[in-house]
Amino acid sequence: MAREREDILKDLAESVVNMNMALAVSTAHEAIESGLDAYDAITNGLVVGMNKSGVLYDEEEYFVPELLICSDALYAALEILNPHLKREEGQEKIACVIGVVEGDTHDIGKNLVKIMLDVAGFEIHDLGRNVPLADFVEKAKEVKAEIICLSTLMTTTMDGMATVIELLKEEGIRDRFKVLVGGGPISQAFADRIGADGYADNAANAVKVAQGLCARFVAAA
Amino acid sequence: MALVRFCPDCASVEVAPGSTILEAARKAGITIETPCNCVGICSKCAVRLDVDSLKNVASAPREDTELDSGWVLSCQTKILGDITVEVPGSEQPDTIRILHHGLTHAVDVDPCITKIYSQKEANTSVFAFDRLLAREAGDTSGTNFGIVVDIGTTTLVASLINLSSGQEEAVASALNPQSLHAQDVLSRIRFASEEAGLEVMHKAVINEINRLTEVLAKGSGVVADSIYEMIFSGNTCMLHLATGVAPSSLGRFPYTSIITGGAHESASGQDLNISKSGLIYVPPIISGFVGADITSGILATRLHRSTDTTLFVDVGTNGEMVLARNGRLSAASTAAGPAFEGMNISCGMRAARGAIEAFDIDESGEIAVKIIDDAEVVGICGSGLIDLVGELVDHGVVAGNGRFVDPKNSKLPAVLKDRLVEHMGKPAFRVAGSVLLTQKDIRQVQLAKAAIRSGIEFLLQNGGVGPGEVDRVLIAGSFGYHLREKSLINLGLLPKEFTGKVDFVGNTSKSGGQVFLLNKESRKKMCDLVKSIQLIELAGIPDFDKVFVHCLGF
To answer: Of A67, B170, B189, B425, which has the fewest Cβ atoms less than 10 A away?
Structure first.
């Protein structure tokens, strides 16, 4: 006998928080077989779980490995559910360009932020690491992004973030984008100094800040 | 203009409103350390203001809520009117523990600098290899000296050597004054990316080396004019800064070194106060992040001659490592960050008076803490931190995922349970006095140790060597010297297969530098050897992140 929707959603969420990939996969199959809507299973199951993982990360209960293993479980289940998504349910997503600035190859932090933003429903355009600064601007224009996320671990490359903002200004398109910065040597003070719109000290907070920036966006429009 | 008074030095200075307290302090000649290069994250430049002064400043919003009221970051606080600033007592250089000793071996005294007295001409010729450096009146052949300077990011150690006898006459050490402007290597690269910054860095270290030279010469009755050669041993960035070469390329992928070492420069050209014809020798540099200090380490420990499998690791803010297998060498470096220098640890500090340097938990859960100089506890230094976290992992206070265990649901002895406290809503461990180890601190240690461990994993993997096949592990560096094998293994910084094989070889940057100074044959040999070292570029390995993340656990 098929289980209730609530039970399935609960298992999906818990499989992610508890880093249980086998349960995530089997529950995703179960969701499809019992006729549960894929969009429902993702947003009210998996995403709830990943958000809880993000909270635990923010509370220092979870660390980088846990967050990555949670996301492994999440993506394994998503692979099963995604083909069943009905087209029209795909909401208009907010496009976001992300990458590690030129000169730096450390990308673990950037990848965590990318996962959390992806889960939160942003459309991610990942430029990777050691990204030429002008590429952020070009890509953001091309995909009509609303947010540009810049990451670096190194003190020596963080000034590249200011350059990206300068490039936007030079083209007269600074106000079309919100610039979010983060990484080891970055602080709120640095973000203020270079005129970035937001700063987050970890991947979970990055989502909150990004959402906050977009909410303001919507309100202003 | 605003009047700024500094206590307790009683210095006053007038500055334009809008200047930062730090700018005022520098103008007044007051030393305030700024390890994070004024980014506003390290809190080490905090100063205290009285109630009235607080009204006359504007502070940037701070994330760090742990500073008590009245304290502000001098680099982030702008002066609006007259203020009085209380500057906390800075660390005195003479209280910092600096390691002079390093493993070495007997060397044939065959220096590059030689002197020949000619009775006929009644003068003495000074040679560097076969090149005539100078002619001195009379017989001065008995006075021939050289200096080795280990230029560390944090400390400088200088050793005066008699080139005739090979004896060390005197040793002196100091903090690297560059750290007043920027603490870590990357911050210094950034600081020196502008010409003015480079000049500040270059001058600072040269002045300090000149001061140490004077101390050494005076202390052993040697005239500075009879010092003909100086060896600069240190990491690649320090050697750029000490020779006045812009280090910018070291701070960006692919981290290329401008200088290669293995060559002489004129000492007077660098404003060094030794013999006018004196020379500086920089040993060959392996790469942008594996410097001449590691070349010196190889030479001191004769790694290139070893017939077994030996791993050499310099544990510091960067972990540099060399694997020697049947005489073939491969090298790598990883960014461990400043945690082991106590820099992004809440109660972290350098290995100075009042620092917890060792930590033990016995079977009943009782704690033993060793504090430098048996002083009142101030904080935790790197060796104490590694001991502490290692012991907490070993005794189950910290779980395999790095998390403090829940004291309510654990079988820990009561003495340990009681130390698990809540600090600002998050778990922490009460170490001693008011010194706490927070969950965030453990995360920093995890990141640092995983960086070094994953470097070791890839070096071994590349050499086709299992951890059990490593015969000897040599831990170099003055920081490494104060570590214990047990803690390094508990922490997982080293694989447990290394148990019983670890030796602490000390400051081999200096002891290897002495071999360079005393034996000219070693120079050509090492220049050739360095070219043959296989460099493992960890940034280019696709699996690096995966292994790094795996190494985060205990």
So the answer is: B425
